[in-house]
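// run 5 | inverse folding | seed 20
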């Protein structure tokens, strides 16, 4: 009796796209290199005949989400009063016009954080003390083919102070147009939106913070929630500056209000409508 064995081995190579974040310091006096960011694409799929035979229809490719990389802004005051570093997001993977609109809006917001800090009358450091500092960063709350929503984190320190102060921020775009979305754009009636958001946010914060929470759960308008909010898969996320609605020890309070709790107040056709179907 004879035994015949055979084997096949298929080699697949992952394609890697290396993207190096560049350093940007428009008008800045000092800079440092940012870390390399590497994106690995999925491995190639099967190349055989699709199920259903040679004439089976090929499914349309799914819409791709934009790509988000970053640049580092770094600057020092000529008189050494302050030092700024900010990791700023950069959107690509969409048309030049749309990417330009998004990146211009991001730049305006980031520059606003920096300008507010540097123009705030910061003290000249005492002998042996360091400068006042601002450290900015971002994270992705949602990046889909339809919506980009980015969080900002800003930590500031005033020379001679006892501690840092954390301030959150956010920005949201419609991918198709590059439109910057305002919180008021999402709701049919702002007063009803406040009535839906406030008690749920307060309940979530009470559970998380206990007696550290100083906010009583009331809000006169959507302005109370509009400083720092983002889309997430679970719902709208709201954040507040350290010390604004809770003790300093509580950091930057954050609460998520579920999409299901917002369904009755979300405006049809708005950027949020797809999440409340």
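// decoded
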């Amino acid at each position: 009796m004879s035994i015949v064995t055979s084997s096949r081995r298929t080699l697949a190579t992952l394609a890697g796209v290396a993207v190096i974040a560049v350093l940007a310091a428009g008008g800045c006096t000092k800079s440092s290199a940012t870390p390399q960011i590497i994106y690995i694409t999925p491995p190639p799929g099967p190349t055989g005949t699709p199920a259903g035979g040679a004439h089976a229809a090929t499914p349309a490719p799914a819409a791709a989400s934009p790509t988000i990389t970053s640049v580092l802004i770094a600057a020092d005051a000529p008189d050494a009063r302050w030092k700024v570093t900010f990791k700023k997001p950069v959107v690509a993977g969409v048309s030049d016009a749309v990417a330009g609109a998004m990146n211009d809006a991001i730049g305006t917001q980031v520059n606003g954080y920096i300008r507010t800090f540097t123009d705030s009358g910061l003290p000249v450091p005492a002998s042996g003390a360091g400068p006042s500092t601002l450290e900015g960063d971002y994270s992705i709350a949602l990046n889909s083919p339809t919506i980009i929503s980015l969080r900002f984190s800003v930590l500031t320190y005033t020379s001679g102070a006892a501690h840092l102060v954390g301030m959150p921020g956010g920005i949201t775009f419609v991918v198709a147009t590059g439109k910057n979305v305002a919180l008021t754009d999402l709701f049919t009636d702002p007063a009803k939106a406040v009535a839906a958001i406030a008690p749920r946010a307060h309940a979530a914060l009470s559970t998380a913070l206990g007696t550290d929470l100083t906010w009583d759960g009331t809000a006169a308008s959507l302005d109370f929630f509009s400083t720092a909010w983002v889309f997430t898969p679970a719902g709208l996320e709201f954040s507040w500056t350290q010390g604004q609605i809770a003790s300093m020890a509580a950091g930057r309070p954050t609460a998520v209000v579920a999409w299901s709790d917002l369904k009755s107040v979300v405006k049809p056709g708005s950027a949020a409508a797809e999440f409340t179907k």
